[in-house]
Amino acid sequence: MKVLRARALGMCFGVRDAIQATADVAQPGEVTIHGELVHNERVLVQLQERGFRMSAECERGGMPITPTVLVTAHGISQRERGRLQATGKHLIDTTCPLVRRVHESAMKLANEGFDVVLIGRAGHVEVQGIAEDLESCRVVASVDEVRTWLVPKLGVICQSTTPPRLAQEILAAIEDRNPLSEVRFVNTICQPTADRQAALEELCALVDAVVVVGGANSNNTRQLANLARAAGVPVWQVQSASGLRPAWFDGCECVGLTAGTSTLDQTIDEVFDALSAIAPRKLLNASLLTTG
Fold first, then answer.
1. What integer is the mean pLDDT of 42-57?
2. Taking the CA atoms of the chain, what radius of gyration do you get in angstroms?
3. Given a cut of 50, is residue 285 above it in pLDDT?
4. What is the pTM of this model?
5. CA 225 – CA 213 distance, rounded (Å)
6. Would you call 49 a catalytic residue per the annotation?
7. Which of 25, 28, 59, 197 sits in a 20 to 30 Å window from 283, CA-based?
8. Cα–Cα distance, 97 to 73 (Å, whole number)
């Protein structure tokens, strides 16, 4: 059985920069991370061991007791930023630049008189941060959630980890069900997410099953698993090598490996090694394609 890595997988620059920002903090005990820095359980444990305080994402409405608050890679609204600063909190901002672009696009559309439609998962921390700054924001996760809204102008943006194909399907439904509205689409899907999803689609054509490595709360990891299912390929999502089960791969000649954008390189390597131990007969140790 061969084990193939996708040509693009794993940690993106936004997550690496956020983790590096925590490494530069001299006194972690004086800092509260405002939610989950990244959706990666291993990273969160490491941060706790260093002494960082953390607010659960569902409890971000409270006020951290530390003098410094670290804004996560998923970002926060300007409204929340102002609330924290009004009490004298110093902010360390690790918002991914590509998430910041979604915020800026949403505000630009709103300022130009568009009612904003955000393609994304309601309740996700990134989506919450974008929607909080808008007087009106319609969040849709599927074609079935699209409605006829009877407004003159609809501005459509995407949560940064939205699958491009899904975004196009929802956009087409918005245009179809709102023929009297001017519809403007701003593509705010981040390139690392698009690269990993495209690489997975290539991989699915070559393998009998796929393993996706990533955090349980990671939206982009979940989307990778969903893409594999849509391609008709058996898929298993694991957080680490310990989550693998040899029986999953009975009868498989070739297994694909990919990972979400908050997955550590070390974790990917550990999963690869564990897969290799399950199926030691014929292994491909190099990547499927050279990552650009």
1. 92
2. 20
3. no
4. 0.85
5. 9
6. no
7. 197
8. 9
Q: Annotated catalytic residue: which of 41, 126, 201, 270?
A: 126
Domains 2-10+191-278 and 98-185 share a fold: yes
Q: How far is CA 166 from the centre of its chain?
A: 15
Type of residue numbered 74: H
pLDDT digits (tens, 9 = 90+) for 145-180: 999 999 999 999 999 999 999 999 999 999 999 999
Q: Where are the beta strands (DSSP E) in 75-228?
A: 90-93, 115-119, 137-140, 153-158, 182-185, 209-213
Pick one of 3.40.1010.20, 3.50.50.60, 1.10.10.10, 3.40.1280.10 as the CATH number of 2-10+191-278: 3.40.1010.20
The pLDDT of 72-99, averaged and rounded, is: 95
Q: Domain map of the chain by residue range?
A: 2-10+191-278, 13-96, 98-185
